[in-house]
Structures are given as structure tokens and as C-alpha cells.
Specification:
The protein is an all-alpha fold and about 280 residues long. It is built from 13 helices and no strands. The mean pLDDT is about 85.
Length: about 280
């Protein structure tokens, strides 16, 4: 068997193994779309229907009437974009400082950041809520939604790794030319870290888009509900609008799938760049 035939056979075997796993992952998404086109009781109907119904527009109308879902999605978009930009900027600056500067306590800072990765969010969420809502009085505000979750320890380590991989001679040459430190960071280091930064931005936006617990705690006013919180409000004590929930889930999922498919090249390149040294 020639080398090309072996490679072709290996590709066929690999796809034969991956295809069932892909179908297992896609099946819940397919059923979400199917249930989004059925009435509320469709999810409990005897027998499993694998094809679409005709109630999608009715479910959307009920969702909008009950939760003002378009406004909630607008809030999610604003919060997601602001969170992504601010968090990416802060994590990039922190990663740059930890990668290129030597200062007292640098090892302790790294140890603390590593420790926060293993610290469950549920441990700090109550003290954080008390600080933001009671002490600072920032409940039901953009500040309360965006600022408290900004620190991302994994993103700091991600960017630190990217900056560590860059040749230090490049930055020394810029300093010899008299370039200021902030210009080296903005116009030399960040462009070189573009793949890693793009992957980080995708992860941060998805994290904010899917965040449910913190917006649920900090935003008691319906005008500040994000889309996941608005969907959660459809679950009542005695009645659950499954059709509206599934329709809203489709609206939340479809843009994220499209963004990932369009930017997957940058995402994969960023992950690969952080894995190779």
C-alpha cells in the first residue's frame, strides 16, 4: 500500500470514528430546534418527533410578550461586548507585566492567580454580591453587571504565555530606539499576540453571553435582565413555557454558532499558538 493510500485510509477511519461523536453532539441542538417549533406541551407528547412543527412564530411572540426578549438580548450584547473589551485589555496588560517585568512579589502574584483557577466561583459569589449590591449600591446597574466578573485568571496566564514566547530582543531593540513602554505594548506586542488575543476574546464573549448566575443575582429589575435570565423567568412554579424557552435558546445559540464558524480559524490559531513554545 502506497503512502497516499495509507493516508486516505487513516482519514476514512478517523472520520468514521468522529462522525458518531459529532452526531451525538448535534442531536440535542437538533431537538432544541424541533421543540422550538412545538407548543408548550409538545415536549411531553407521546412519541419522539424528529421534525419541525409550525408554532415557532407563536412561541417567539409569547416569549417577547412575556419577557421583552429583544431588550434582554440587547442588554446581553452590550454587556458581552463591554466585558470582552475591558477584560481582554486588563488580562493582556496583566499578562504583559508578568511576562516581561521583574518585580518584588511576582512569584506570589502568579501563585495567587493559579490558586484562583481552582477556586469555585460559588465560594466568592456571596461576598462579591454583598460588596457590589449592599456596600457599593451597584445592583441593577451596568457597573454591577460588567465590572465584578472582569478578572479572568485563565486569560492572564493565556496572555502571559503568548508574551513569554516572543523574542525579548525585539522589545530591547524598540527600547534602544527610544520607544515608550506603552507603545511597545500596544504596537509591537499586541499585534504579535493577535491570534491568542482573538481566541481569548471569543472565549470571553461566550463566557459573558452564557453567564446566568451573576446577572440573576445582581439584576433584580427586568429592565436589566440579560437573555439567559429572561429565559429563566419563564420557569414558573406550576407552569413552564417550554416552547418559549426553546425558541429563546435557538435565538441565543444560532449567533454564537455563526460567530464560532466564522472565527474558528482565529480560535484554533490562538489555541495552537499558546500550546507551542
Amino acid at each position: 500500500m502506497t503512502r497516499s493510500n495509507r493516508q486516505r485510509l487513516n482519514a476514512v477511519i478517523l472520520h468514521a470514528l468522529i462522525l458518531p461523536m459529532a452526531l451525538v453532539w448535534l442531536f440535542p441542538l437538533w431537538m432544541m430546534g424541533v421543540f422550538a417549533t412545538m407548543p408548550d406541551y409538545g415536549i411531553y407528547a407521546p412519541g419522539l418527533s424528529l421534525w419541525f412543527g409550525s408554532d415557532f412564530l407563536d412561541n417567539l411572540a409569547n416569549l417577547q410578550r412575556t419577557t421583552n426578549f429583544l431588550h434582554a438580548m440587547t442588554v446581553s450584547i452590550v454587556v458581552g461586548l463591554a466585558y470582552t473589551v475591558l477584560s481582554a485589555g486588563l488580562t493582556a496588560m496583566a499578562g504583559w507585566a508578568l511576562a516581561r517585568y521583574r518585580f518584588f512579589g511576582r512569584g506570589a502574584v502568579l501563585a495567587i492567580i493559579l490558586g484562583t483557577i481552582s477556586l469555585p466561583f460559588f465560594v466568592v459569589i456571596i461576598p462579591q454580591f454583598i460588596l457590589v449590591a449592599r456596600d457599593l449600591g451597584m445592583a441593577n446597574s451596568w457597573f454591577g453587571l460588567i465590572v465584578p466578573p472582569l478578572f479572568n485568571s485563565l486569560g492572564v496566564l493565556f496572555m502571559r504565555q503568548a508574551f513569554t514566547m516572543m523574542p525579548v530582543e525585539l522589545f530591547d531593540a524598540a527600547r534602544v530606539e527610544g520607544v515608550r513602554e506603552w507603545r511597545i505594548f500596544l504596537f509591537v506586542a499586541l499585534p504579535l499576540a493577535r491570534p491568542t488575543l482573538a481566541a481569548l476574546c471569543i472565549i470571553l464573549f461566550l463566557t459573558s453571553w452564557n453567564n446566568y448566575l451573576w446577572p440573576l443575582l445582581i439584576a433584580g429589575d427586568k429592565a436589566m435582565f440579560t437573555a439567559p435570565v429572561a429565559l429563566g423567568s419563564l420557569i414558573g412554579i406550576s407552569n413552564v413555557s417550554w416552547g418559549g424557552i426553546m425558541a429563546g435558546a435557538v435565538l441565543l445559540t444560532a449567533p454564537m454558532l455563526a460567530v464560532f464558524l466564522l472565527l474558528q480559524r482565529h480560535f484554533i490559531a490562538g489555541i495552537a499558538a499558546g500550546a507551542v513554545k
